[in-house]
Predict the structure.
Amino acid sequence: MSAPVLKLVAQRIAMGLLLLLAVSVLIFVGTQILPGDVAQSILGQSATPQALENLRRDMGLNDPAYVRYLRWLGGILTGDLGTALSTGQDIASSLKERLWNTLFLAFGAAVVSIPLAIMLGLLAVRYRNGVVDKLISGLGLASTSLPEFFTGYLLIYFVAVRLQWFPSVSTVYEGMPFGERLSAIALPVTVLTLVVLAHMMRMTRAAILNVMQSAYIETAELKGLSPFQIITRHAFPNAIAPIVNVVMLNLAFLVVGVVVVEVIFVYPGMGQYLVDHVAKRDVPVVQACGLIFAAVYISLNIIADIVAIVSNPRLRHPK
Amino acid sequence: MAKRPVDRSGLLLDIRNLRMEATSYPPGEPPRNVVIVDGVSVKLERGKVLGLIGESGAGKSTIGLSSMCYGRGGVRITGGEIVLNGRDLLKGGPRLLRQIRGREVCYVAQSAAAAFNPARKLMDQVTEAALLHKICTKAEAEKRAIGLFKKLGLPNPEIFGQRFPHQVSGGQLQRAMTAMALCSEPDLIVFDEPTTALDVTTQIDVLASIKDAIRDTNVAALYITHDLAVVAQVADDIMVLRHGKRVEYGDTRQIIKEPRQQYTNQLVSVHHIPHEENNPTDAPILSVNNITAAYGGGLVKVLKNVSVDIHLGQTLAVVGESGSGKSTLARAITGLLPPIEGKINFSGRVLSPRLANRTRDDLRELQMIYQMADTAMNPRQTIGTIIGRPLEFYFGMKGKERDARVAELLHKIEMGKGFADRYPAELSGGQKQRVCIARALAAKPKLIICDEVTSALDPLVADGILKLLLDLQKEENVAYLFITHDLATVKSIADAIAVMYRGEVVRYGPKSQVLTPPFDAYTDLLLSSVPEMELGWLEGAMKNRRMASAGN
């Protein structure tokens, strides 16, 4: 790689880290603004002022906000996410497995949906404005328009209850055989795929169609290439940057936005965990989850930016 | 190698009674059919070169592409026959078309810069058609490509193919495109204005290498251009087209020496506008003194110590190839690129270097006309609004007074006042440029900077614009700074000439003096590169050159 590319990539990564820092401030400030404090939550409404004061002093809640923020940030940087109020458990250790589960589900959905979306996008371009294109677009839009709880319950009723192909409750546990694990997540993966498919497919189609207007597409046509060769060899390489961008946005959604799907299928992931603790007003857990989601979101977008930089021949091979 | 049918008669391409149509969608009207090509027949024998010539909209490119059965932008072939190597392409279906495209017929586009895929290496693109049609192996194709790079005079032919399109110059890309067409050893190449977008000094190189390549490979060619002098250098026969119909057809000597049709005659005698040189008046209206300008915070000097004067009612032509600093000089004068050294006197006062610090009168008295009239106008404003804008802005004119002045200006540019309610999209290229002239005149300027104003226009239309500019100069006593790379234009309209080369003025003075020998090496190169309507001019010019063009 050449120097300008390395410089741009380094800039993007530095920007991402800076952004993450800003987000951590926002999360911290946001949870501070909420009424009530941690000591109150722990001791309940009937606590005496003296008991509250003692607990506050013990937990360091009387320190200025920036000290508490730095303490929290320092903890995160050393892998200590704090302790859950409701259960008293270490957040980092209970999050680890759930994060892994969520990533597994997201990865499963990504493996199915990304190639499928890009293939369908290419097909839609190849047969643009024809029956195939309209069918793909129509079905894609329909599947996106249906809310995931609806498709989720629909699948549970037909595929799990009636046909009994896959379990309706996606229980996974440590040491579960890989095959069973896959079978357990089959339905949530399907739902997630249906949700993100159309967006990526439509953007792939639009990005490639945009490139198809270029003069070099005519050159390719006049070389005698078949329509599909033109799309894959000449149009696709020039449409990578916008496609990767939308793919990464959807990947981020797969990690961050799976809350509803996890609840429907009782899947032990981050979303479930977050929802449970929001209900219990467990601020440290909410903070930790928020920060992890932000980190995932930002790093996926950094990857999209880097791919866009690296896929640009003008940056990769300067004059 | 797969077999291809061979017509013993030597006839390669036989287009009979070709008719091509497109559907146009005029704003606010129902769609209608437009005939682009009407009953044209073309016969081409093996190894021969036919020039197709005419102004834009004549159907030259459309006919050229029809040899590959390709209609650009929704153009349909609605009648006639296209017989290539003894087969009627119109009856062949898409499979046959894919077989002949890139194998029997190849295409060289006007803008090679746009016709190459930016994401792929040149070698992959040059050899793609040969590999696709299984004409040879990858190693053979690359060897052949390197040989062609060498023959076409590309630098470092061994490694040239490893580069990406953005890494090489426009002239080199144009030659690479010719190599791409030759790589699959086709029977016919369609050259679609292959040198039009290039500087004259680069054009002559590319033209010479195309001519050599045609001679050495014995490929037949359709050579499309609007420049008769260019096509006279390469073609055996010439067909003159207008409005999709054939005007005249004959061998090259006959067309340029004894044209039989009035229209052909016009094309032959284009660029002969009589213009008497004016002598400088006492004080110049604009005086550029030792200007140095740079991009990148003073790092890249693009103008070095430039001094020129322009007198009221006269024209200074600034000539040079692309990158010589012509347009940068205009940017420095207008204040868009404040010079780092030197000063500019205008109308008896010193102009502030920065645009933001100039008075409204400075802005009014110094107007600009651009190369692309299309992009210089707001497509959603009517012509009346566009021309009326400077009237409102500088003179506070409103209502009837403004409309009357707009009508007067439209009359000056030889367009009726009915145009005031039209939109730019409804106008032809020449009309759009006239509107831009009217808009500049509306401000009652003392100096108009004309930046390549005729480069994008057909020769006859360009001539009309130049005549108009000269007439307006007499009426309004306005001075022009005329930036161009076209020396024929310069000869027609200039009173003084400044030749620029790499940011410096290398030759400057009254027209008669600048165009009289002895020349410096660069001016000689520029002058000798302008194609002349003479058979064998190209060979003579290449032999007598003293320096190579900067594009290489």
